[in-house]
Specification:
Blueprint: H1 7-26, H2 28-38, E1 42-43, E2 48-49, E3 54-59, E4 65-70, H3 80-87, E5 95-99, E6 104-108, E7 111-115, H4 122-136, E8 146-147, H5 148-163, H6 169-185, E9 192-194, E10 203-205, E11 211-213, E12 219-221, H7 228-232, H8 242-257, H9 261-281, H10 289-298
Parallel strand pairs: 8-12
Antiparallel strand pairs: 1-3, 2-3, 3-4, 4-6, 5-6, 7-10, 9-12, 10-11
Length: 302
Amino acid sequence: MRIKVPAALTESHVKYDGEAGRAWSAGLPALGERYLEEWGLRLDGEPRHGVVSLVLPVVRQDGTKAALKLQPVTDENATEAPGLRTWAGDGSVLLLDSDPETGTLLLERLEADRSLSSVPDDMEALGILTELLARLVAYPAPEGMRRLGDIAQAMLDDVDQALKSLPRERDRHWMKSCASAVAELVSEPGDRLLHWDLHYDNVLAADREPWLSIDPKPLAGDPCFDLWPALHNRWEDVAGDVTRGVLRRFDFMVDRLGLDSQRAAGWTLGRILQNALWDVEDGESELKEIDLAIAEAVRQRI
């Protein structure tokens, strides 16, 4: 086999899925070879990987550079291909081919070594990200997307049990506060096509446009639910007065996207609730300080 699986990717799959993850990782070379043959591709460089996926730089028969993305099918990425197909390259990487049975995607090749994190000025980077987000959420979600309303209701259903795992009163207070904000919004979850994970490392330089988004986890919902990643990432740039720094980003995005500030704050608290519930599920007994700082800041907009 010509395809080598990085040890770090195998370790990641073992961490989350045990021996099933190891077995899936071991099958990656054969899976990759299958699509190299079926889709008429040749390898064109060293593989890259994230926490879940293996990405192979390839060239199509017509000479077009592309990227072959291999990943297990999960609830998060099962909607990736339909989402990318809906956007059709408008603000996102272009989908060239896909196989829903295995989750394999053939994508437009972008500059993997140059993400939006490389732009020195964080507000300039935020402006680029926000303009991309505006284009993405302009699309109504197609049929078959996961729905924010269902996700939000499931979060609310888990709160009482999760509170038992938080010994600090501060953490219990903020989990209840976030849940209260979500409860006020859950009946109006929205219908736009959301990226769900639009942060600076998920925006790459490209030839077709200066910057394009990658790795969406698409769902149908309110664009206000998509602000949190840009508030949380590049945290080192939120210097000095943290509340002021967070609100500077928050207000900028709300203004550029034409959002209701109160709804944006509420759904941002919803993202923090989601993170808290995931942390508790993973055995954590305290909420993350960055999320608490963001919660304290955006609560001022409600």
